[in-house]
Every structure is written in C-alpha cells, then in structure tokens.
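Before drawing any conclusions, I looked closely at one protein, both as residues and as discrete backbone shape codes, quoted below without any editing:
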Amino acid sequence: MPDPLFNRAFLEAFQIEDTAKLCMKNGGVLSWEQGLGKTIAALLYGKAVRCRNALFIVPQDIVPQWQQIAEEKFLTDLRPISGAREAHRVRERLLSGHFGWYITWYEALSQSSKIEEMGHVEWDQAPQPRIFLDSETRLCC
C-alpha cells in the first residue's frame, strides 16, 4: 500500500529503509544495482526532506524516464533545463522566490558555464543535502 505522502509510489522495504538512512545522514551514496530504483529513491529523498527547490543532474538519455517516473509516482513535474537561456531563466525565477524541481544534464549547463551560477541558488532553507546515485547522477536540494 503506498504512503499517501508519496502518492502512487510503490516502494519496496529496502528503498524506504535506505532512503530513510540518507535522510538521517543528510545525503550519501546509493550503490544499488541497475533496476533497483535509484530514480525512485532520489525523488523520494527530495520529497522526504521536503525540498522546495531541487535540481537533478542526470545523463541526458534518461531525462524522459526521470520525468515520467516523477509524474507517475510522485505527481511531480521535473522541468527540463536544456541550455543557457533556460538556465538563466530558472536562476532568475529561483532568486526571485519561486520554487520548483528541475532536471538537466552536464552538457546542457556546461556549454553555457551556467552550472557555476546554478550552484549559487539557495536550493532550500535546510543544509544543502546531496545524494549521489552513481558517477553521473546528482541531486541538489
């Protein structure tokens, strides 16, 4: 039975347990095998620590998968940042007090040198938790 906090996310016991540990330690590394739900865990972590602003940096080819899982399981819209213009708009929006969850890939930000600017955005009032899922996937919130 899904927890109402996480809408339609059907979670395995190990996902809940490991994500709870990440929350208690304010981030960490998930080293689960492929297909065990690292995407779900990252989204769950963001919800559990109540991130108002989140930036997921993932390989470009899995952006649509992340967006689909966020919508289907967590009723959350991950807005893509696909280049310099969008990165600038998102930065201005966040600096003016708006909230949102975003997804991008290194190449989209590095082409414009905006990755450094995005890092100066106040992602949340809490200490800045980070989760590392593998060598290419990051969450800042």
Observations:
- Residues 9-140 form a domain with the Rossmann fold fold (CATH 3.40.50.10810).
